[in-house]
Design a protein that fits this description.
The structure holds two protein chains of two kinds.
Chain A (H helix, E strand, L loop, with lengths): L1 H12 L14 H30 L6 H4 L14 H25 L3 H32 L9 H5 L8 H42 L1 H5 L3 H26 L1
Chain B lengths: L1 H12 L9 H25 L7 H23 L7 H32 L1
Helix pairs in contact in B: 2-3
Classes of the chains: A mainly alpha, B mainly alpha.
């Protein structure tokens, strides 16, 4: 009788939420990174959903295949999506090097972590460079916050017969939203690169070797993958839809 | 009920947690992401301009493919699939609020269309 009661109490105590251990089995900083990313997801989705609502209610919209048809510095016209395809590939690739750095961290292989982190940083810098070129190209066409291209340039981005006033209004919305959202994403990539550099320096100094775990690499990895995740959505809603 | 599932999950992943993302698996996920992106380009550059696919289903296809990519990035690269179920739910369930915002602003943009007419 008494053993049955004792067993029952033991059983109750063994559930994850009955105290005495971390129910999520995750380190504090890692869990907080997840919650930060959740809040960041809300910020980005607010921006993207506002974009969606404005675009949905607009009578016309500049066609992505006409606006984004140049490969800055190489091809001026007739290459839709090629440049953004390269950017997407670079970011996915740097996500892979990041996850390989995390994997090397689990094996405590310091050298491998360093090399994969450097690869990730290079990928991030390349992406930022591409974005700078894309921005410069659009800016040279006349798009900017509060600015639209001239009448002649604007006509290239619409089907025939759309009145100029409509073209101008809708292009203004497009420009504001494009620079705000890709700018906010680019700022995330930039801060990600800075954080990656700091972590790489720490790895080189042996900070995590002394600590016995490369969990910090995993935490910045979460941030970096999130940046890649946001780009997947930006890419779909600005360039494909 | 959920604690039973979590316990079963925890026993399987307690010591094996770090072994779940092997190099082979990382590259497999990479090729899945690359493949989905290539399919999107194929639709955008070939199928859609040549009208080989109905215009009204192109955008839903893009969105579904994007959600697939999001699943692979969050699940495998961000390791959420191998975390405790309770923690995964703590992250995923609040995302449902976003659906609410989508519904509200879609409705609102219908109203904006009516305002313009």
């Amino acid at each position: 009788m008494s053993t049955a009661v004792a067993q029952q109490i033991d059983e109750v105590k063994s559930t994850p939420w009955s105290g005495g251990r971390s129910p999520f089995n995750a380190e504090y900083g890692k869990m907080m990174m997840w919650f930060f990313l959740l809040s960041d997801a809300f910020t980005f989705s607010s921006l993207l959903i506002s974009y969606g609502a404005l675009r949905f209610s607009a009578p016309v919209w500049p066609a992505p295949s006409l606006v984004f048809q140049s490969f800055p510095g190489l091809i001026e016209h007739g290459a839709p999506l090629v440049f953004v395809g390269l950017m997407t590939f670079i970011l996915i690739m740097s996500s892979v090097t990041m996850v390989l750095a995390v994997e090397a961290g689990h094996r405590n292989a310091k050298k491998e972590v360093v090399w994969w982190m450097i690869g990730t940083i290079i990928g991030g810098v390349m992406f930022l460079g591409c974005q700078a070129m894309e921005w410069t190209h659009l800016h040279s066409e006349g798009f900017w916050w509060g600015h639209t291209p001239t009448k002649e340039t604007l006509q290239e981005f619409f089907n025939k017969g759309v009145p100029f006033v409509q073209q101008q209004n809708t292009s203004q919305q497009f420009a504001n939203l494009f620079f705000t959202i890709t700018g906010f994403h680019g700022f995330h990539v930039f801060s990600g690169v800075i954080i990656n550099i700091i972590i790489t320096v720490n790895v080189l100094l042996g900070t995590y070797q002394k600590r016995g775990s490369y969990l910090m690499v995993e935490k910045v990895g979460l941030y970096w993958h999130f940046v890649d995740l946001v780009w997947v959505f930006v890419f779909t809603f600005f360039y494909l839809v | 009920m959920s604690s039973e599932i979590t316990d079963a999950h925890a026993e399987g992943s307690e010591h094996g947690e770090h072994e779940t993302m092997t190099k082979k698996r990382i590259w497999k996920v990479f090729f899945i992401l690359l493949g989905i992106t290539c399919v999107e380009f194929f639709i955008a550059l070939y199928l859609a301009p040549h009208h080989l696919i109905a215009a009204n289903i192109v955008n839903p296809i893009y969105i579904i493919l994007t959600l697939f990519k999001a699943f692979y990035i969050v699940g495998y690269f961000m390791h959420l699939k191998f975390e405790k179920m309770d923690m995964a739910l703590a992250i995923i369930i609040p995302i449902l609020f976003i659906i609410g915002l989508i519904l509200v602003l879609t409705n609102e943009s219908h109203y904006w269309i009516d305002l313009r007419l």
